[in-house]
Amino acid sequence: MKVKLFVLLFSITVIFNSCGNKKSTDAVQVAGTLTTMPVADNKMMITAKVSLKPEKVKDFIEAAKEMIEKSNMEAGCTFYQLFQDPYDNSKFIFVEEYKNQAAVDAHFATDYFSAFGTKIGDLVAAPADIKIISVASEVKK
C-alpha cells in the first residue's frame, strides 16, 4: 500500500511540476524525500508593446537601436527585433526569442537592459505591455 501511495504521489508531483515554468532541474518533495528531477528547458518568447509620446518617436528609435544590436549578440538570444505599427507610428512592439529561461534571465541582468529603461522613461506615453511566453513545442510550415 505504501508503494502504491508513493507512486501515486510521485506521478502527481511530476505532472504538476511539468506544467510550471521552471529551470532545468527543481527540487521536489515526494513522500517525505527531496528529489531533484529534470524538467523541460523550453524556448522563451517575449513581446513588449510600447506606446510613445508622438514627438519622441525619433528619440526612441535611436535608443532602441543599441538595445537591439547588443541583445542580438547575446549567446542565448536567437531573435530580437522592433516593429512599428503601420497605422500609428507612435506604437511599437519588440519581439524577442531566447533559447531558454536562463537566457532571458541573463538578458534582464545586462547593464544595457537597465540603461534602456532609464533612457526611454520620459519617451513613453504609457507602461509597456510585456508578455513572456514559454514555448513547449513549435510547428514550422
What's the short story on this structure?
The chain is α+β, with helices and mostly antiparallel strands and 141 residues long. Helices cover 36% and strands 31% of the residues.
Question: H/E order of the elements?
Answer: HEEEHEEHHE
Rg from Cα: 20 Å
Class inferred from helices and paired strands = alpha+beta
Q: What would the principal axes of the Cα set say about the shape?
A: globular
The biggest beta sheet reads: 4 strands, antiparallel
**What's the CATH topology name of the largest domain?**
Alpha-Beta Plaits
Count of helices?
4
Q: Please identify the top-level CATH class of the largest domain.
A: Alpha Beta
Give the strand tally: 6
What is the terminal separation in angstroms?
49 Å
Question: Order of strands across the biggest sheet?
Answer: 4-5-3-6
Low-confidence regions = 1-31, 34-39
**Strand content range:** 25-35%
